[in-house]
Amino acid sequence: MAYVECKLKSMALMSTVSVKLYFPTDLPEEVGCDVKGVLTLLHGYTNSGDDWVQMSAAARYAADNGLVLIMPDCGNSFYHDMVYGGAYKTFITQEMPVQLNRIFRIPQEREKNYIAGLSMGGYGALYLAFSRPDLYAGCASFSGAVDLGLMLQAGDMPEARSVAVPVFGNTDKLPEESDLHVLARRIAQLPKEQQPKILMTNGLQDSEPFYYILQQNEALHATMKTLDLAHYKRMQWNGVHEWNFWDRSLVYAIDYFLENGYAAKKMEDWRSPVTEG
Asked: Between β-strands 15-23 and 67-72, what pairing exists: parallel, antiparallel or unpaired?
């Protein structure tokens, strides 16, 4: 395996950005030597791309499936071109792919590129894939803050304004171009072959004040299930806002993207009986 940390100079951000990569250079024999795809993983609010390396088994899951991982640091941007901050959407969708391809010759084909994230990154994964369906064959949100309009309008969550103002400006209303309900309706109007696969996961106990992740996912799911989407799946199980839930979500996402039975294999590994003696 190979871990690489790049310092990419971004003209969109007018700064240097840290991007972590994982390359499965020692693939299992049953996987083969060819890279099967590229998975961009987005971090949560107040965190960084390091989390995916330090807190999850993402690299092991990637190695099992021949995936390159890309894990950029994007601050508290919600993966937007911020009103009072950096142009992170432009960086991720335009600058970063070009620079990484020049250096590493990473596969650029849409059918080999996927994006997923947790919490703020869950919103970001859907937002970027819905905004640029030409770039990603699949997207997944794990415990995503997927209904930011609900957060902005909730009278008992004044903290949401301090989160939202740098991204969206001084407004109580989420711009349409940032509203996943609106963007999902646009995706549903595309030909089936141009629609990305969409996966949403959330824990049944993930409803702590301020974020209300369960309620946000319920709200977006209510919209999604009314749309003519070619590939949409929602998964829930007991869990809260933490890495055990996101680690398992990642297994389901890889299985959904690649359609290779990976989740069933991992479940069988975890359920294998233990003998003591």
From this structure: antiparallel
